[in-house]
Structure formats: C-alpha cells, structure tokens
Amino acid sequence: MQPLFRVSMIAFGLAGAALVAHAQNQNIETTKVFRSPRGEVVTLVLLKPIAEGNAIIQVTGTKSPLEGLALPYKRSSSGQTDAFTTQWRGRSFSFVQQHTHHRERWELYVPGDLRNSHPLNFDEAASKSANAQAIVALHDKQKADGTLARFANFQRKDEQAEHEKSLAEATAEADSACGTKLRAQIAWPSISDEVIKKYSVSSFCSTPLGSLASLCKRSPVAATYVRDKVKELTCTWGGPHKLALNGSKLDLSVDPEKPNQDDFTRETLEALEVAPALPKPTGDAPPWGDGRTLGQRIMLAQAGVCSDGKGHYVLHIEGPSSTTQLFYGDGKRMTRVPLVEAIGSAMFLEPRFYNPDANPSFRGADIRVHSAVDFDAQKGTCAVRCGTQRTELRLLPHDKALELLTAAALAPIPALRTPHALARDERGNYYYVDKGSTPATASSFRLYMGPKGNMKLQKMTNVVSDSQGEIFSTKTGDLRLIVGPNGTQSTWVKGPARTSLLAVPVQENLRMIWTELGVYAGEKRSNPCDDL
C-alpha cells in the first residue's frame, strides 16, 4: 500500500502544482522585459485586473539590494509619468518609471544611485519568451521565507551602517584633498527613526566635508590651514542650523529645512579665523580685509601680482562673491581698474587701442575698443593685451606678492569722464559733450567744439535736461547745443541763427573720440595700457 500511497501523493502534488500554475497564469496580464545599456535586466509582470495597477518586477544584473528580488509594485499615474512603487526600508520608492511625454520612455533607479536614472530599452524577443509564472512563483517563495519583508521593513542598524559608509567616503575625499586624517561621526542618539526614513542623514552631515574638499582643491593654502586647524567633525540633528569650530572640532547642528546649506557651509568655513591679522594698509580697504579668515587667505593665495620688471604692476584678484578685481600701479599705489564683467573676467574699456578682428557687438559692447589682462593661476602666466599689442608679464612668487599687497595703498576707480553726446556740422566742426562717470558727477557736463584735434572747452552757464532733450548754454547765453531725445537730432543756436547738426553715435565712435578729437590727448586712464 505504501508505494500506491506514494504515487497518489505525487499525483496529487502534480495536480496541485498545475492548479497553482494555472491560477498564476490566470492572474498575469502581460510581461515586458527591458534592458539598460549598463546590463541591468528588468522583467515586469503586470497582474490582472490591470486597472488596479499591481505588478511584480524583478531586476537582475545590478549590485544593488534589488538584485534578483521579485518585488510587489503598485502603479500610479501623475500627468505623463507612471511610477511603479514598492517598499524599501520602510519607505516608498519608485524604482521603475514610465514616461509618455512625446514618446514612451522607461527608466530604472537603483539603491545607492537614486539621483541618476538609467534608461531602459524594450526587448521584444525576451518579452515573448519570459517565464512570468517563474517570476510569480519566486515572489511567493521570497514572501514566504521573509526575504521581501527584510527588504521592505525598516532596519535601523542597516540604515546607520549605510550612512556611516557614505560619511566615511566623504571623509576620505576630504582627507585626500586636504592631507588630513579627519574623524567624522554622527550623533545617532539625536536622530529618530522617522528622521532616518525621511532624510538622507549622511548627505546633510557630510556637507562640511564636501566644502572642505572643495576649498582644499581650490587652494593649497586652504589645505595647509585645514590640516592644521581641523581634526574632527561631529554631526547632531535638530535645533538651529549652525557650524562652528570648537578647538579642532567642527560641530554641525542640522536643520534639514534650512535653504542653501552648501553655501552656508562654505561661507562659514571661509569665515573661520586661521591666521594673525595683516598690517592695516593705507588707502581703500582691500578686498581681502585683514587676512585673518580662511576665505581671505585663499583670496590672497590666488591673487596674481604681475610685473614688467620696470616698476609697473598688475594685480588680478578674485574678490567677494567671486567677482574679479583688477588694480594697476607702481607697487606703492595701486589703482582699481573698472571692469566690464558681462564680457570678460578682466576686460576693461580702452578706446585708445583698437583690435579690428574683435567682435563689434558682444553682449552690447564693442570688444574692438576693450583690452584685457590674461591671468592663469594654474599655468602661472600673466599678460596685458592692449588692442592688438600683447605684453607678457612675470608673475611674482607668493611671498613677494604678499609683501607688495600688504604695503601698497589701494586707490578707488578714478573719476574718469565718459562721452555723452557728439554731433558735427557740414563744415567738419564737432560738438562734443562728456560727463562724470560716478553717480555724484553724472550731471557734471563739459562742452567742447571745433575741428578734430583743435576742439576748445566752452564755459557753460546752464544745463537743461528733460524728456524733450538737453540744452547746454555757454557763458554768453546765446550759444546753445540742443540735443534731441536719445541724441538723434542736434541744433547749434547762435542768436537767431540755427544750424542743424548731424548726430554722431557715441558708442560707434569711441576710438575716434579718444584718439582724434584731441579732447583727451595725453590723458592717462590709470590702467595697464598707460604704460605697457
């Protein structure tokens, strides 16, 4: 009887398996297989009824925790995106997404690299031959043995280990850049399970490490100070967001809702006092302040002081907010040069020199009448370009540059004159008006008249400016230059006589104004092109 009973049980088992397989087959709507260029294979089994959005998805070919699991997913639609969501570590994740904007597009996200999507391509042949029943059966097995539950449920120990690993990687990067051996730790008692589920703790806690690495890569001087001053980092969760250096330890208190945390961290680190104050210079306050903070020392280290060896010096420095500042002088007095930031980091108006091959209209400026200082800190090169003329300069060593910078008097941008209006008559006489270049002198007009090279300054007694134009009256009161709206029409009035003048566009004639009219003959502009 035993053999018969055994055969019967086998037959019963086969029949039961057939029924289960049939039931599973009945629940399967369709199966799709996708492949990524990196080698991942995604098998998507959509279950009936399709309207409920239930699916089982298996991902293989990845080293992530997803590997080989037949996980349950729920499809939800939002606009032109279908997200397939499952549970991982007590949180919902959409590892597989379908987008239908313009064209159908599938993407895969994997643990450990959730910020980057990996495109998926539909594999028609593999989809036809896919064994959906095996995927469903694997799902049932992994559900029964607790594999899926371990993946889905929150495991604080595993979470902390993952964050510790990420923090260690950020610490290693900072150590590599700064030459340090930092000790970084997270104050886990200050962090609840809900915080871990909601936030990437290690990402917040490693922000100072990333900033330190960036500062050290940016400047060897920063690496020296960081190596001497910073030994460890402790990250605590909650309370006002702050970062402070206490002794040799950076104490970070995280408020996850604080905006622009990268900027806050960088600015806080740059504000750390790392060196004694430098001697207070005469003249204007320097962009590097008193040189006590890390940011100021980085600024000084990156400054380029260049010389032609004949007593002429150019200072190129990245000021606050990464704005380039340029100074020129004899080393004892350095005058700031006004730069046109929109067209180049160290480019300045210089109409006395001309480069015919340059762009006549770049971001609203005529580059042909602009010159520049070309400074490359990495290559250690420096040069001045005036029109088509280029002068190579020698870059001073850091100690010599620092000696000059801390001794020189810095002067502000000089109050140069700027063109306002230009016109001429049929006999070749020009009528030129300039004004001050500062807000305080913007209404300080001067009127010149005469032929090119022999223009005379006229003493004015009155200036009228309104929506209809401007009137510049001379000392006698019977000679007036009337400039129409936008400078498009001008008239010279002498008693009852009126002479129509041809308006000459100022911006298109800057070179002629400075080199031919004679108004500015021999005048220096306090920039490198005065002498180089």
Question: Can you give a write-up of this model?
Answer:
The structure is a single chain. The chain is an alpha+beta fold. The chain has 13 helices and 30 strands. α8 (207-218) packs across α9 and α8 crosses α10. It starts with a helix and ends in a 17-residue tail after the last helix.
Question: What would the keywords be for this entry?
Answer:
13 helices, elongated
Unreliable stretches: 1-24
Overall pLDDT level: 90
Helical content (DSSP H or I, runs of 4+): 25-40%
Strand line-up in the sheet with most strands: 17-18-19-20-13-14-15-16-21
Report the biggest beta sheet as strand number plus sense, adding barrel if it closes: 9 strands, mixed
Structural class determined from secondary elements? alpha+beta
β content, as a range? 25-35%
Cα shape: elongated
- Number of DSSP strand runs: 30
Quaternary state reads: single chain
Question: Rg, please?
Answer: 37 Å
- Determine the number of helices (DSSP H or I, runs of at least 4 residues): 13
Topology of helices and strands:
Blueprint: H1 2-27, E1 28-35, E2 41-47, E3 54-60, E4 70-78, E5 81-88, E6 91-99, E7 105-108, E8 118-122, H2 124-129, H3 132-144, H4 147-152, H5 156-178, E9 183-186, H6 193-198, H7 201-205, H8 207-218, H9 220-229, E10 232-237, E11 242-246, E12 249-254, H10 261-270, H11 294-302, E13 304-307, E14 313-318, E15 324-329, E16 333-337, E17 347-349, E18 370-376, E19 381-386, E20 389-395, H12 398-407, E21 409-411, E22 417-424, E23 430-436, E24 446-450, E25 456-458, E26 460-466, E27 469-474, E28 479-483, E29 490-494, E30 497-503, H13 510-515
Parallel strand pairs: 9-10, 10-12, 16-21
Antiparallel strand pairs: 1-2, 1-8, 2-3, 3-4, 4-5, 5-6, 6-7, 7-8, 11-12, 13-14, 13-20, 14-15, 15-16, 17-18, 18-19, 19-20, 22-23, 22-30, 23-24, 24-25, 26-27, 27-28, 28-29, 29-30
Helix pairs in contact: 5-8, 8-9, 8-10, 9-11
